[in-house]
C-alpha cells in the first residue's frame, strides 16, 4: 500500500512539475484568502498571498516544509510532498482566536507571535470591514486594548500603558511618523491615515526604542497599507473595491475606491477616500453636564450666543477629510523589489470642541478656537533585496520625505483680534535594515537610521474688524531636529522550547534652534543640543508545548528632547516665563513584562501580561537660572525664570488580560480588560496620578461566523475615575468632566452595547450594518472633551472587482 501511495505522489510531482502557483481558500466558503504568510522551512524571507489567495513559489526554491499563517485561520504545516498531493490547492480552517500569527513590528522581520517576548496585538482587514471605524484612531480602539481620548471629532489620541502623545510611536509602512513638534498634550496626527487603505495594524506594547528610536516608550503602532499585487499569469491582474458608508449620529458620508493593476513585474495601486461628518449627536441617557446648550455665531460685527435647538448636538464638531494613496511596485529581478508610495491627507478646518465649552464671566471665553486644515504628505521609496549573502538574507532600504502642516486659530469672545499660529515640518528619513540567519539557532537583525526634521513656524495677528494683519509671535523657533542611530538585535534558539532575545541601540540626537528676540527677549538667539542615548532589551521565551507560552522581557526606552520641549517661550503663569534649556537631555523608561498564554483543549485561550515601567529624568517645568539670574524682565514685568528640565520621574504598572472561549460550533466569547495605575512627579515636586493612565477599561464580545455571515455583539466599558483620583492637571477642567455630588469634576463609568454584522453575498459584494450604543448612553471617555456618539446606525456596501 505504501509503495502505491509513493508511486501516486511521484506521478503528481511529474504532472505538476511546472505548477508553482499555490491557491489558498477558506475551507468552508471556498473564498480566496489574502495576506496569508508562507514560511519556507526556517528561512528569513516569506511569501504572502494576493487578493485572489494566490502566491507564486520562486523558481528553483528548495524547501522541505511550508507553514501557512493568517490571523483568522489555524496555522497549517505542509511538506513538499503533501503540497504536491493537494495539487497546490490549500484550504485553511477558520479560527476564532489566533494560534501563531506572523508579526512584523516587533523585529522589523516576519516572526511568529509565539516566539516573541513582548505583547503584541494585530487588527486585520476583516475586522476593520466588520467594525467600520471612521478614523484610524477608532480603528485602534476596536482592539479593546488601546484607549482613545478625543477633544474634537477630527481627532483621537491613543493611550497605551499609561503613556500617550510624544511617548508613543507611529510607523506607516516602516516610516516613522512622529515629528519634532509632537507635544505632551493630546495630538491627532493618527487620523491622517485612512483606515480603509490599511491592510494590517499591529500594536507593540511597551518600549520599542531598540528598533524605532526616540518616543517608543509606551508602545509602537505600526500600520501596513495596501500593497500592489502582481499578476501570476500572462494576463494583467485587475482588482479593486468600492465602498460607501453612512452613519446616523454624525450623518457620515464616506466614499472609498481603490484599484490595482498588476503585470508580472510591474503593479500599481490607487486608493481614494472622501468623508464628510456633520456635528456629532450624543446619547439621551447620562449626565446633563455634557449637554451643549449654546453656540456662538458672528452677526452684525458682534459675537452672539445662540440657544442650541438640540443640546445633544455638539456644535461645532463637524469636519471633512480626503485621503489619497498611490503605490507602484517593480520586480526588478528575482530577488530585487522596488516600491514607491505616495500618501496625501487633508482635513477641513474644525473646531476644538472642548475649548468652545469654556466660560468666562458667564459668557463663552472663545468665539473661535479652531484647528486649521491638517495636512500630511509622504513620498516613500523602498528597495528590498532577498538574495542571500554572507552579510544578509534580506536587505531593505527605506527612504521617505514627509510634510506636516497644522495651525491653530483662536479669538476671544467679542474681541476683534484673531491669532493664527501655523507650523510646517519637512521630515526626511533613511533606514537600512538587514536580516540574517546564522545557522539554525541565530536570527540577526541590524540596521542604521537617519532622520532630519526642519521646522518652520509662523504667527499672524489679524483684526477681523479692519482686516489688517501683522506678524505675531510664533509658537516655535525656526529650527531643525536630527537623529542618527544604529541598532542590533538577535534571537537565539536554545532548543525547541526556549529562545533568548537581545538587542541594543545607540542614538545621537541634535537640535539647532534660532529665536526671534523681538517677541522673546531672552539674552541669546541660538540653542544647540547634541547628545546621545543608549537603550537595550533582553527577553526569554519558553514554549513547553503547542498550547502554552511563558515569556519575560526587560527593556529600556527613551525620548529625546524635541522642538516642542525646548522651543516654546511663553508666560506659564503671571510673573513667570519659560525659557529654553540648552542642557536638556533624553528621558528614559525602564520596563519589565511578564506574559503567559495558554490554550485549553482548543476551546479556551487565556493571555495575561503584567508590566511595570519607571520613567526617569522626565521633562518637567521647574525654576531655572538664566545666565545666573532667577528673574528677568519679560513683557515689562520682572518674571521668575523657569525651564523644562530633567527633574522628575513617573511609574506605571498594570495588567492586560484576554480570554477567548469557543462554544458551540460557530460562536466564541472574547474579553480584553486593561488595568493600569500611574503616578508622576509634578512641577512643584508633588505626586499626582499619571494623566495618561486611563481608568480600567475593556471590551467583551460574542462573535459568530458561519460561511458568508458573521456578526459581533460587543460591550465597551470604562470604570469611574473619582475626583480625588483624577490627576491634579485634570481636576480643574470643569468643562470636560461631569460634576459629582460635591460639584467636583469626575469621570463617570459607562458602557456601550454595539451590534455589527456582515454578509458576503459572493466574491464581489459584501453588506455590513450595525447599531452602536444601542441603549443611547450619554458618555464621555476619560480626559476627553467630546462626548461619544449616541445611538448610531452604520451601513456600508462594499463591492470588489
TrEMBL record:
<keyword id="KW-1134">Transmembrane beta strand</keyword>
<dbReference type="InterPro" id="IPR000531">
    <property type="entry name" value="Beta-barrel_TonB"/>
</dbReference>
<dbReference type="Pfam" id="PF00593">
    <property type="entry name" value="TonB_dep_Rec_b-barrel"/>
</dbReference>
<keyword id="KW-0472">Membrane</keyword>
<dbReference type="GO" id="GO:0009279">
    <property type="term" value="C:cell outer membrane"/>
</dbReference>
<keyword id="KW-0675">Receptor</keyword>
<keyword id="KW-0998">Cell outer membrane</keyword>
<keyword id="KW-0732">Signal</keyword>
<feature type="signal peptide">
    <location>
        <begin position="1"/>
        <end position="19"/>
    </location>
</feature>
<dbReference type="InterPro" id="IPR012910">
    <property type="entry name" value="Plug_dom"/>
</dbReference>
<dbReference type="Pfam" id="PF07715">
    <property type="entry name" value="Plug"/>
</dbReference>
<dbReference type="GO" id="GO:0044718">
    <property type="term" value="P:siderophore transmembrane transport"/>
</dbReference>
<dbReference type="InterPro" id="IPR036942">
    <property type="entry name" value="Beta-barrel_TonB_sf"/>
</dbReference>
<keyword id="KW-0813">Transport</keyword>
<keyword id="KW-0798">TonB box</keyword>
<dbReference type="InterPro" id="IPR039426">
    <property type="entry name" value="TonB-dep_rcpt-like"/>
</dbReference>
<dbReference type="GO" id="GO:0015344">
    <property type="term" value="F:siderophore uptake transmembrane transporter activity"/>
</dbReference>
<dbReference type="InterPro" id="IPR037066">
    <property type="entry name" value="Plug_dom_sf"/>
</dbReference>
<protein>
    <submittedName>
        <fullName>Hemoglobin/transferrin/lactoferrin receptor protein</fullName>
    </submittedName>
</protein>
<feature type="domain" description="TonB-dependent receptor-like beta-barrel">
    <location>
        <begin position="342"/>
        <end position="774"/>
    </location>
</feature>
<keyword id="KW-0812">Transmembrane</keyword>
<feature type="domain" description="TonB-dependent receptor plug">
    <location>
        <begin position="116"/>
        <end position="220"/>
    </location>
</feature>
<comment type="similarity">
    <text>Belongs to the TonB-dependent receptor family.</text>
</comment>
Amino acid at each position: 500500500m505504501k509503495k502505491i501511495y509513493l508511486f501516486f505522489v511521484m506521478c503528481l510531482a511529474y504532472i505538476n512539475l511546472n505548477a508553482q502557483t499555490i491557491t489558498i481558500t477558506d475551507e468552508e466558503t471556498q473564498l480566496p484568502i489574502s495576506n496569508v504568510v508562507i514560511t519556507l522551512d526556517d528561512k528569513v524571507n516569506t511569501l504572502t498571498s494576493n487578493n485572489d489567495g494566490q502566491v507564486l513559489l520562486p523558481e528553483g526554491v528548495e524547501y522541505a516544509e511550508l507553514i501557512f499563517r493568517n490571523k483568522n485561520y489555524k496555522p497549517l504545516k505542509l511538506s513538499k510532498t503533501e503540497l504536491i498531493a493537494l495539487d497546490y490547492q490549500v484550504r485553511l480552517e477558520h479560527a476564532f482566536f489566533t494560534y501563531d500569527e506572523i508579526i512584523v513590528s516587533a523585529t522589523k522581520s516576519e516572526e511568529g507571535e509565539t516566539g516573541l517576548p513582548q505583547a503584541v496585538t494585530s487588527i486585520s482587514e476583516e475586522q476593520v470591514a466588520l467594525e467600520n471605524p471612521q478614523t484610524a484612531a477608532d480603528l485602534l480602539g476596536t482592539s479593546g486594548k488601546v484607549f482613545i481620548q478625543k477633544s474634537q471629532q477630527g481627532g483621537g489620541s491613543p493611550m497605551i500603558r499609561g503613556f500617550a502623545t510624544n511617548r508613543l510611536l507611529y510607523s506607516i509602512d516602516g516610516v516613522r511618523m512622529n515629528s519634532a513638534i509632537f507635544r505632551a498634550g493630546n495630538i491627532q496626527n493618527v487620523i491622517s491615515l485612512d483606515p480603509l487603505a490599511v491592510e494590517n495594524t499591529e500594536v507593540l506594547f511597551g518600549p520599542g526604542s531598540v528598533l524605532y528610536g526616540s518616543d517608543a516608550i509606551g508602545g509602537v503602532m505600526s500600520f501596513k497599507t495596501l500593497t500592489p499585487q502582481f499578476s501570476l499569469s500572462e494576463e494583467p491582474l485587475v482588482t479593486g473595491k468600492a465602498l460607501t458608508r453612512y452613519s446616523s449620529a454624525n450623518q457620515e458620508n464616506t466614499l472609498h475606491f481603490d484599484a490595482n493593476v498588476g503585470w508580472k513585474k510591474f503593479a500599481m495601486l490607487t486608493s481614494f477616500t472622501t468623508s464628510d461628518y456633520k456635528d456629532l449627536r450624543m446619547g439621551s441617557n447620562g449626565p446633563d453636564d455634557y449637554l451643549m446648550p449654546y453656540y456662538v455665531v458672528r452677526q452684525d460685527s458682534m459675537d452672539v450666543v445662540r440657544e442650541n435647538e438640540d443640546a445633544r448636538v455638539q456644535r461645532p464638531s463637524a469636519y471633512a477629510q480626503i485621503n489619497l494613496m498611490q503605490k507602484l511596485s517593480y520586480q526588478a529581478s528575482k530577488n530585487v523589489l522596488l516600491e514607491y508610495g505616495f500618501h496625501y491627507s487633508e482635513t477641513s478646518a474644525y473646531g476644538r470642541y472642548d475649548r468652545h465649552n469654556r466660560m468666562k464671566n458667564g459668557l463663552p471665553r472663545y468665539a473661535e478656537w479652531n484647528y486649521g486644515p491638517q495636512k500630511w504628505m509622504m513620498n516613500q521609496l523602498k528597495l528590498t533585496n532577498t538574495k542571500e549573502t554572507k552579510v544578509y538574507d534580506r536587505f531593505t532600504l527605506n527612504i521617505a520625505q514627509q510634510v506636516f502642516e497644522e495651525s491653530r486659530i483662536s479669538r476671544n469672545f467679542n474681541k476683534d483680534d484673531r491669532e493664527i499660529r501655523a507650523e510646517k515640518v519637512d521630515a526626511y528619513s533613511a533606514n537600512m535594515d538587514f536580516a540574517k540567519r546564522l545557522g539554525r539557532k541565530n536570527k540577526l537583525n541590524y540596521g542604521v537610521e537617519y532622520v532630519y526634521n526642519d521646522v518652520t513656524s509662523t504667527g499672524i495677528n489679524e483684526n477681523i474688524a479692519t482686516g489688517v494683519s501683522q506678524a505675531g509671535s510664533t509658537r516655535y523657533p525656526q529650527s531643525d531636529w536630527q537623529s542618527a542611530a544604529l541598532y542590533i538585535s538577535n534571537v537565539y534558539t536554545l532548543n525547541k522550547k526556549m529562545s533568548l532575545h537581545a538587542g541594543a541601540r545607540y542614538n545621537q540626537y541634535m537640535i539647532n534652534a534660532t529665536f526671534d528676540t523681538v517677541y522673546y527677549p531672552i539674552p541669546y538667539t541660538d540653542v544647540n543640543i547634541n547628545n546621545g542615548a543608549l537603550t537595550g532589551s533582553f527577553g526569554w521565551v519558553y514554549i513547553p508545548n503547542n498550547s502554552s507560552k511563558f515569556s519575560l522581557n526587560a527593556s529600556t526606552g527613551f525620548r529625546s528632547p524635541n522642538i516642542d520641549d525646548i522651543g516654546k517661550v511663553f508666560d506659564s503663569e503671571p510673573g513667570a516665563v519659560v525659557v529654553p534649556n540648552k542642557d536638556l537631555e533624553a528621558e528614559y523608561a525602564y520596563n519589565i513584562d511578564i506574559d503567559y498564554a495558554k490554550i485549553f483543549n482548543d476551546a479556551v485561550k487565556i493571555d495575561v501580561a503584567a508590566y511595570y515601567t519607571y520613567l526617569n529624568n522626565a521633562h518637567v517645568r521647574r525654576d531655572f537660572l538664566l545666565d545666573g539670574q532667577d528673574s528677568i524682565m519679560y513683557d515689562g514685568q520682572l518674571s521668575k525664570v523657569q525651564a523644562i528640565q530633567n527633574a522628575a520621574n513617573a511609574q506605571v504598572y498594570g495588567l492586560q488580560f484576554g480570554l477567548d472561549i469557543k462554544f458551540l460550533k460557530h460562536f466564541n466569547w472574547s474579553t480584553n480588560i486593561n488595568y493600569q495605575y500611574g503616578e508622576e512627579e509634578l512641577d512643584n515636586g508633588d505626586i499626582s496620578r499619571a494623566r495618561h493612565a486611563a481608568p480600567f477599561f475593556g471590551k467583551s464580545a460574542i462573535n459568530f461566523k458561519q460561511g458568508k455571515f458573521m456578526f459581533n455583539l460587543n460591550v465597551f466599558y470604562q470604570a469611574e475615575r473619582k475626583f480625588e483620583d483624577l490627576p491634579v492637571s485634570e481636576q480643574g477642567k470643569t468643562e470636560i468632566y461631569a460634576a459629582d455630588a460635591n460639584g467636583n469634576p469626575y469621570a463617570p463609568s459607562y458602557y456601550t452595547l454595539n451590534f455589527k454584522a456582515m454578509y458576503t453575498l459572493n466574491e464581489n459584494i459584501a453588506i455590513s450594518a450595525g447599531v452602536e450604543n444601542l441603549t443611547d448612553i450619554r458618555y464621555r471617555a476619560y480626559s476627553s472633551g467630546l462626548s461619544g456618539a449616541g445611538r448610531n446606525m452604520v451601513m456600508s456596501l462594499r463591492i470588489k472587482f
